[in-house]
Amino acid sequence: MAQPETLRTFIAIPLSPLVVTKLGNVQRALRRTCPEQAVSWVKPENIHLTLFFLGDIVPERRAPVEAALSVVARHVHPFTFSVQGMGAFPNLNRPRVIWVGIEEPTGQLALLHRAVNEAMANVGFQPEDRRFSPHLTLARIRQRASREEAQAMGEAVRRAEVGHLGDVTVEELVFFRSVLKSSGAEYTPLARFAIENEK
Ligand code: 2AM
Question: Is this prediction's pTM over 0.90?
């Protein structure tokens, strides 16, 4: 259990309102063909591209994290990624997380992810050792879902045709706080770091 004075935090790239709307439409379409009780949907306004999950931190750690993020943001230029396709982790036969994919073929997103990871390592956070799989989580399969329900969800994802939903220009990094409530997670920006062309 987290101590009351800690903050659950993560670093993410926000999406454009248009892409958020389209992700909501994809969720609505998928919802019609899947077992409702087996799935927990992410509110469209809570969908973002996470770069680093810090977990529970004491408030004193905010300042070094924010200083490190401001350095990262100052050293990158805006770039665009494409939001397209749908899939599941770990796979469509046993899905746990349903996502929409991200494509950024020039490698700028991977570089930004690496820079954020290194910056967090420098202020004492263990970098994730998994390969970076950029994605937007649409839904999570509930623990209590049966294998059949999970498979039905995987089938619904397989049948859905989600093409290119839009492009997002990365213009800021956001340091978010997450508060877990029975009605779902609530994300509040603690700090925003603009990524600008002029340096
Ligand atoms: P996800 O979308 O892949 O679930 C807030 O929880 C954000 O942090 C989510 O976007 C979530 O990614 C991400 N995250 C990464 N690692 C996490 C972890 N171990 N626990 C909870 N959230 C995590």
Answer: yes
